[in-house]
Design brief:
Distance between the termini of chain B: 71 Å
Order of helices and strands of chain B: HHHHHHHHH
CATH topology of the largest domain in chain B: Cytochrome Bc1 Complex, Chain D, domain 2
Structural class of chain B: mainly alpha
CATH topology of the largest domain in chain A: Immunoglobulin-like
Number of domains of chain A: 4
Number of helices of chain B: 9
CATH architecture of the largest domain in chain A: Sandwich
Largest interface: A-B, 92 and 92 residues
Largest sheet of chain B: none
Number of helices of chain A: 13
Shape of chain A: globular
Number of strands of chain B: 0
Radius of gyration of chain A: 30 Å
Largest sheet of chain A: 14 strands, mixed
Shape of chain B: elongated
Radius of gyration of chain B: 29 Å
CATH architecture of the largest domain in chain B: Orthogonal Bundle
Helix content of chain B: 40-55%
Number of domains of chain B: 2
Order of helices and strands of chain A: HHHHHHHHHHEEEEEHEEHEEEEEEEH
CATH class of the largest domain in chain A: Mainly Beta
Helix content of chain A: 25-40%
Oligomer: heterodimer
Strand content of chain A: 5-15%
CATH class of the largest domain in chain B: Mainly Alpha
Number of strands of chain A: 14
Chain lengths: ~575, ~270
């Protein structure tokens, strides 16, 4: 029996310790373990064809041209193997990849794209086989000794050790001096002024990487991986190789700097409840009011609305940061998210006029199936709260509820923000399902207000609303102490997002936390006092028993007591 | 019950390991159970890959489990006379310490109980940010009218079957892949932002345990067609009935099984 207890407690402790370990690691490209490369002969090519025609063809195409039946639904588009141009390599710019490079990419997949990891699905042999087959699409290049990639491997030493502070500072200087910011932006969110003009080798528009979102780096965000990308460039994209322009030391420095920009490594948010802080007096109206510093911040992941047509598989915004403050009368939310361009109808029209295109030619080639809307749309954000909410109530559906369970929406729009004729940028709406677009409340029920501003590739927006209104059950009523279901919707107009083509969150909760009442402290104190009195009584009782010699079996003899 | 002896009973008789004594072992066990409930179980779901977020054990369940663990420990230590005495001895001695041996050493054990009481009351009285419990039944019963359906391609074999599956693969990869993933593992590009994670078809507890009419129902009626016990409000699963023909849904189901490397469960009795 005691053995069993020991075992049980050991198990429980083990479970507890396991809880401290982080979730699934994303893994880095260069860290993929590559075994010995087999000889990729014609038998391997034939075997690879079978794998390819089961697992790869629907995206990369039966002919390897990157144009399978599913390709129009993907962004970024699948690799065209006929061009034999690969982003992730350990060979010099413009050269073919090593077989080991392709092996790493297939094994690990490419984050931020539709390419999954195959390490857990295909055997090592199957992966080498499919590499043999992929290379056969550009056999004339891969078989030509002139292009032998094994003659083109870039040197990679070890990252410099020493004072991290100094390296990051030098890295930042290299980032400035090498003009990285022209595309990647001064705030490194990919908001650089050259961004909108960039295209890849197939003339598809391409955005510079947001360097503060390390989990989406195609080739991993370890210092070594970033160094490799800077050294080899990303072939097929506007990202050049800096092996000639920057010294090895400078490349390590800027790699250290870039890898440091996402310290959390894009860890998944595990918070489901957003704690709202109660403040005395006025709620802040300014976006950068110091009062916001104290409010807990939760980063909520967003996904494309794919439940109702028109579905949205390629949302631009993947996370929104949320803070909530409230006082006796009002609640205020501060929302912030990355967006490379501030899209308003006026700004987009001006850009189109300058560059000579019309709303009708937005996204002409990308989506032949036409599920991306054409036209100019403003950026916007929306908070969704069930019209009727309570602990025992079931929630409305996560996409705009239903006619029986309507939701209220507080929507901020960039266009209204910058429209001098509009009193304020937030509109209150009601939705009950997706059959009809949400409808704005009557004027007397428009109580929400707000403000927003775009800076360095990031929107920050405040939405405020009275906790309760005069219209009872017809409007959302909030009370201090409640846990209120809440969800978030974001539109990036420049990505063709409007209506149901939006980024949305699942249901989360805002807890309008009340200050801890004094009675709570008193109850705790009281319980301690009672426990002490009870214990004192026990001590007195036991001592008297000890004095009478009744506790001998516990090793306490009366002779030992001095009282 | 035997004769009273002035010397303390030997502690190693209680059968514990490492000469620690039964009381510390009981305490360690209870702390271990608590840690397991508090951290182990919530993170187990994440480690196994069932859920992206740790799911905390509801407070009332914690209380019941801890009560059971406490009672169990009490039954165990009191089930034998020597063990019970070995368990009580350090407690009694802490209460009736003779003078000398440092004030702190005397008071420390006495402070444990009030501190424990303070901690438990604090947890009860102070507001916490635990979310409302979201219990969910993953496999609600299949509605009668779907159980009667039959897969028109079920009888096909060889190349004919392969051709149907191939059409299904294209439909799957266009419509289902964004959430359920290219490999059917429930981790498509859109899965990251969903709290209720898309089903992983390669998990033997999902499509492999149900008859193929079950996924047909789920595809046609979607998340909003779920009964309330299965939290339809959290499901981003579309109801495809207006957009995908029944024949195409059967193709998708056959492709799903091919992609995940599973077989649908055979209905009870070969024919119905």
């Amino acid at each position: 029996m005691p053995r069993f207890i020991t075992l049980l407690s050991g198990l429980a402790l083990g479970l507890g310790l396991a809880g401290i370990a982080p979730g699934r690691a994303s893994g880095q490209w260069l860290e993929v373990r590559v075994g010995d490369r087999p000889i990729l002969d014609t038998a391997m090519v034939e075997a690879g064809r079978a794998v390819y025609e089961e697992r790869c063809w629907f995206c990369h195409g039966e002919d390897g041209d990157g144009d399978g039946p599913v390709a129009p639904y993907l962004w970024p588009r699948p690799r065209d193997f006929l061009m034999a141009s690969f982003k992730l390599r350990t060979t010099a710019s413009g050269e073919l990849p090593l077989d080991e490079d392709l092996y790493r990419t297939i094994t690990r997949g490419i984050p931020g794209t539709s390419m999954p990891e195959w390490g857990s699905t295909l055997t090592e042999e199957e992966r080498w086989q499919v590499i043999a087959y992929i290379k056969s699409f550009a056999a004339d290049l891969f078989e030509d000794e002139v292009f032998d990639p094994y003659q083109q491997i870039v040197e990679r030493g070890d990252p410099p050790r020493g004072g991290a502070e100094g390296i990051l500072e030098s890295g930042r200087r290299v980032f400035e001096e090498a003009d990285c910011w022209e595309c990647h932006g001064a705030a490194a969110r990919g908001e650089g002024e050259k961004g909108p003009e960039l295209t890849d080798d197939s003339d598809f528009p391409i955005w510079p990487t947001n360097l503060t979102r390390g989990w989406k780096f195609r080739g991993g965000n370890s210092v070594e991986d970033v160094y490799m990308r800077i050294t080899t460039g990303l072939d097929g994209t506007p990202m050049p190789s800096y092996s000639e322009t920057l010294s090895e030391e400078e490349r390590w420095q800027v790699a250290q700097y870039v890898a440091s920009l996402d310290p959390e490594g894009g860890g998944r948010n595990t918070e489901v409840v957003i704690s709202a802080l109660r403040v005395d007096g006025e709620l802040p109206t300014e976006l950068d009011d110091p009062a916001w510093e104290g409010a807990p911040e939760v980063s909520i992941p967003l996904t494309g609305q794919a439940t109702f047509a028109p579905r949205w598989q390629v949302p631009a915004v993947t996370d929104i940061s949320v803070q909530v403050l409230y006082n006796a009368d009002e609640v205020a939310l501060r929302l912030a998210w990355d967006d490379r361009l501030a899209d308003t109808l006026a700004a987009d029209s001006a850009r189109a006029a300058k560059e000579g295109w019309s709303a009708d030619d937005t996204y002409p080639v990308l989506y032949r199936d036409g599920f991306r809307a054409r036209g100019f749309f403003p950026d916007a954000v929306e908070v969704m709260i069930p019209l009727r909410h309570g602990v025992s109530r079931v929630l409305p559906h996560m996409v705009y509820g239903s006619s029986g369970q309507p939701v209220d929406l507080w929507r901020w729009e960039a266009d209204l923000q910058y429209d001098p004729d509009h009193p304020q940028p937030v509109t209150e709406l009601r939705a009950g399902g997706t059959q009809h677009p949400p409808e704005a409340h009557a004027l007397e029920s428009q109580l929400a207000t707000g403000a927003g501003d775009w800076q360095d590739g990031r929107w920050t927006v405040i939405i405020r609303r009275p906790l309760s209104t005069d219209h009872g059950a017809r409007e959302v009523q909030l009370e201090s102490g409640q846990i209120v279901p809440i969800a978030f919707h974001v539109w990036d107009g420049g990505n063709g997002e409007t209506g149901l083509r939006m980024a949305l969150s699942s249901w989360y909760f805002v807890y309008l936390r009340e200050p801890i009442p004094l009675t709570s402290y008193f109850v705790v104190l009281l319980s301690v006092v009672i426990a002490c009195v009870f214990q004192l009584g026990l001590v007195v009782w036991m001592r008297s028993r000890a004095r009478r010699g009744l506790l001998l079996e516990y090793g306490i003899g009366s002779s030992k007591m001095s009282e | 019950m035997a004769t009273l002896q002035p010397t303390p009973p030997p502690l190693d008789d209680d059968g514990t390991v490492g000469g620690l004594g039964i009381l510390p072992w009981t305490a360690i066990t209870l702390v271990g159970v608590y840690a397991g409930l508090r951290f182990g179980i919530p993170w187990l779901a994440v480690l196994v890959g069932v859920s992206a977020n740790p799911a905390p054990v509801p407070k009332f369940a914690m209380a019941i489990y801890m009560l059971c663990a406490g009672l169990g420990a009490l039954v165990y230590v009191s089930s034998e006379d020597t063990r019970w005495r070995a368990f009580l001895t350090p407690i009694v001695q802490a209460f009736v310490v003779p003078h000398g041996g440092g004030r702190a050493r005397r008071l420390l054990p006495l402070a444990i109980i009030p501190l424990l009481v303070a901690w438990i009351t604090w947890g009860q009285v102070m507001p916490s940010t635990q979310s409302p419990p979201e219990g969910r039944i993953q496999h609600p019963g299949l509605p009668e009218q779907f159980a009667k359906l039959e897969n028109p391609f079920g009888v096909l074999k060889g190349p004919e079957r392969n051709a149907i599956e191939r059409e299904g693969v294209i439909l799957y990869q266009k419509n289902c892949r964004p959430c359920h993933g290219t490999k059917g593992t429930g981790d498509g590009p859109l899965a990251r932002g969903l709290r209720l994670q898309p089903v992983d078809f390669t998990d033997p507890g999902t499509i492999a345990t149900v008859v193929e009419q079950y996924p047909f129902w789920r595809i046609q009626k979607g998340g909003i067609g779920l009964p309330n016990v299965a939290t339809p409000w959290n499901s981003a699963m579309p109801a495809w009935e207006d957009e995908i023909e029944p024949d195409a849904i059967w193709r998708i189901i056959m492709a799903e099984h091919g992609i995940a490397g599973t077989e649908p469960r055979k209905p009870e009795g070969s024919e119905r």
